[in-house]
Amino acid sequence: MPDFTTLPDLALRTVGGSVVAANDESFAEKESLIRPGRPGFKAETFGNKGQVYDGWETRRRREPGHDWAIVRLGMPGVIRGVVIDTAWFKGNYPPHASVEACAMDGYPSPAELAAADWVQIVPKVDLKGDAEHAFEVSDEHRYTHVRLNMFPDGGIARLRVHGEVRPDLSVYEGLGLDLAALANGAVVTACSNEFYSAPNNVLAPGLARHQAEGWETARRRDEGNDWLVIRLATLGVIRLVEIDTTNLLFNAPGAVSLKGSVDGETWFELLPTTRLQPDTPHRFRLEDAPAAAYVRVDIYPDGGLARVRLLGTPA
Questions:
Q1: Distance CA 94, CA 153 (A)
Q2: What is the pLDDT of residues 254-274, one digit of tens each?
Q3: CA triplet 193, 189, 161: central angle to 5 degrees?
Q4: How many angstroms separate the CA atoms of 37 and 297, rounded?
Q5: 70 near 147, Cβ under 8 Å?
Q6: Residue-level pLDDT at 31
Q7: What is the largest CA-CA distance in the chain?
Q8: pLDDT confidence bin for 104, thresholds 50/70/90
């Protein structure tokens, strides 16, 4: 898959995405488009609407036109690429699709979104059945919603909208916030190892339900240690560090340390090497920490973290 797929999925349900409207969902519900994980399938599983699909499927169209679904991005941002996945749709996939995007402040209704100024970010393209289709997007605008169009009808399992988060942080003026939250614009820019799961998982909202929803490295067989670098949502002063090893029973790190940086090159200590316990949320207060734009999290020697929270105030 292209490089853009390493960026966060702005539309994912677990980061607040929602399929707010669709013109038709006769066979399978529109909400499936933004579910986490790969689509599932079990042959000869029939319900009142026919074969059960883990995706969005419309009826056979008998009149001119096409089907569409509008997705509110859980994290508004600059879209770098889109993946349209027709997994398991073999005789009922749409032959063509396109994607549009718009930016609307506040909390627009489906009717207001339908009347919005939509910009085409993926032109009408050919699709195959039971396949992932990746399309790069060259557009520097910030968007809040996307509209998936399929021509003329059929089924699509997943829509992934990868990009760079661009939130409105003005709502936190005068307040503290999680400077390391993916939803606030933080992102992992470097990582020593991501053998089992992606490092950006530690910045995701909510609690990890199992260890795959955190970051886990391979077992080290040398004298080094694993680490990741987080670019914070904004330059800020960190007051509280939360290191969560929930679900990591036998593969939690033995210890952790944190360093901060303004430019990502010169580093200063934030948290000295500190012992960790398995399956435990840890909280450490920082006193008089300098402002930082980057934080390096070192774990010793390897293992995994469920979440990293860096609570503080913008500088």
A1: 6
A2: 999 999 999 999 999 999 999
A3: 100
A4: 27
A5: yes
A6: 96
A7: 68
A8: very high
Rg of the chain taking only CA atoms, in angstroms: 21
**Band of the pLDDT at 48, cuts 50, 70, 90?**
confident
Whether residue 42 has pLDDT greater than 90: no
Q: What are phi and psi of 129, to 5 degrees?
A: -80, 145
Is residue 260 within 8 A of residue 289, CB to CB? The reply is yes
Q: With bands split at pLDDT 50, 70 and 90, how would you rate the model's confidence at 41? A: confident
Can you give the pLDDT at residue 77?
97
User: How far is residue 138 CA from its own chain's centroid?
Assistant: 19
- Say if residue 216's pLDDT is above 90: yes
Q: 38 pLDDT exceeds 80?
A: yes
What b/e readout covers 78-97, taking b as 16+ CB neighbours within 10 angstroms?
bbbbbbbbbbbbeebbbeeb
* pTM over cut 0.70: yes
Please give the domain boundaries of the chain with CATH numbers for all domains: 3-165 (2.60.120.260), 169-314 (2.60.120.260)
How many CB atoms neighbour CB 195 within 10 A? 10
